[in-house]
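Audit log entry. Action: structure prediction of a protein-small molecule complex. Ligand: pyridoxal-5'-phosphate. The ligand was supplied as SMILES and no pocket hint was given, so placement is left entirely to the predictor. Protonation state taken as written. Sequence taken verbatim from the request; no trimming, no tag removal. Recorded inputs:
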Amino acid sequence: MNGKQYTFLDLGTVNRPYAGALKEAVCRVIDSGRFIGGTEVDAFERSMAALCGTARAVGVSNGLDALRLIFRAYVELGVMRPGDEVIVPGNTFIASVLAVSDCGLVPVFVEPDPLTMNLDTRLVEAAVTPRTRAVMPVHLYGRVCYDATLRDTAARHGLKIVEDSAQAIGAMSATPGRRGGSRRAGALGDAAAFSFYPTKNIGALGDAGVVTTDDATLADAIRQLANYGSDRQYHNIYKGLNCRLDPMQAAILSAKLPFTDRENDARRRLAAVYEARITNPAVTKPLYADDGSAVWHQYVVRVDDREAFRSYLADRGVETGVHYPVAPFDQPCYKEFGGLDMPLSRRLAATVVSLPVSACTSEDDAREISEIINSYKTK
Ligand SMILES: Cc1ncc(COP(=O)(O)O)c(C=O)c1O
């Protein structure tokens, strides 16, 4: 034990390189006197659409609302009806599922592929029923969940593909998207939701999110729904919500967005160290490809005796996380799904451990953490 601390994540450290630009952005908004909508939000939306390669981007309040608004808009536009089904992975963050059920739609859980830890696209076909209207690939941990199987299954059954890109800003698909063109997360399906929760690869200084899409009708409906359902002032065509992105967060994000690739590359370098250095057979490493496609929002290993492993690491100063310890269908709010036969999702929930992979970790740290991991012995 050398007494050194390996921080999992400290948002002060993460934002320090941007401090000057962030302060300038905040001052600009204060000086503008405009605190809802306006040019800061417009500029951020243009940058986000350009980054993803989509025709439209609509800034919204957070990632859950981004997803929720996509489904709500599909319902309002008559593409989906309450009671329709949406296929979701069994091992995602709860927000993916909340967005579906909040709109009166029914989540249908599909097991992950244990190699990618993403929705197993080969199992989607068997989950389709006459009421299925959409599939939600979640690009979990920053790895794109998109392939020809998913694209073709969705096309065959007329399903919308709604990407949960919350963890995957800047990630790339090996398979061309539904409409060709950009292979970036956010441009692969029919609509995508991003989160800028402060811990994300590009984080706001508060809550923020965005929807990206090429579908102008959907984008307009989302913008209206997020603004009390109004298409013009004091004229409400939907029973809407207030889910707007505010100019302060937009200005902050505009300062950070140009550094998306730099942030992601730093994470890729750490993932490469872990991939090369961790050799302990008790620790299953995530699937690794040296093609720069994943953005490693989390670097997640699997260990049978998670608590022993985590406390071994904690004793040696290595902070870790668990994303996520309980499958969504096992949460108390989803009692109706209790007893689902989803052993893989539960197995992942019981064994996943996230290693430090943020800007708080240097490549030397990752080498040292790997050595500590290699000295771990199972009882
Ligand atoms: C996979 C996934 N979906 C949705 C969300 C929801 O985003 P937010 O926290 O901005 O509401 C998050 C992040 O928290 C997430 O990780």
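Audit: result stored. Residues 281 and 374 are 9 Å apart (CA to CA). Residues 260-277 form the longest helix (18 residues).
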